[in-house]
Amino acid sequence: MRTQFRKKRYWSRWVVPALSVACFTYFGFHSWSGAYGLDSAEALEIRRVELSERLATLTERRQHLERMVMLLSDGAVEADMLDERARALLNVAREDEVVYFR
User: Fold this and answer.
1) Which spans of this chain does the record mark as coiled coil (predicted)?
2) pLDDT tens readout for residues 46-75
3) Residue 51 burial by CB count (10 A; 0-12/13-18/19+): exposed, middle or buried?
């Protein structure tokens, strides 16, 4: 009966540790400098502040529009509001008026 002995390769015992180190390095790098990593926390905070300011501006604009709608739909429409909306929708003005566009 013949048996064969395989000589173990020197590098074969380093395959698993090398792959582990590569995985730890990859995930460690991306947890530090990835899109949601520790390094980008400051950029995310700046964006949060910008979006909060934009939300405040849009909320103020919405409240202004709600007030205007309330004045128009109150049943007793004010004359100047009616005149303003009619001119804006019909795109007309008198000869002696100056028109400012927003």
Assistant:
1) 41-68
2) 999 999 999 999 999 999 988 887 877 766
3) exposed
Give the burial class of 36: count Cβ atoms within 10 A of its Cβ; 0-12 exposed, 13-18 middle, 19 or more buried.
exposed
CB contact set of 30 (below 8 Å; sequence gap of 6+): 37
CA neighbor of 84 nearest in space, from 95, 93, 76, 75: 93
What are the φ and ψ backbone dihedral angles of 26, each rounded to 5 degrees? -60, -50
- Mean pLDDT, each 10-residue run in order, the chain (102 residues): 72 88 94 84 91 98 88 70 77 74 68
Side-chain-side CA neighbours of 11 within 13 Å: the count stands at 2
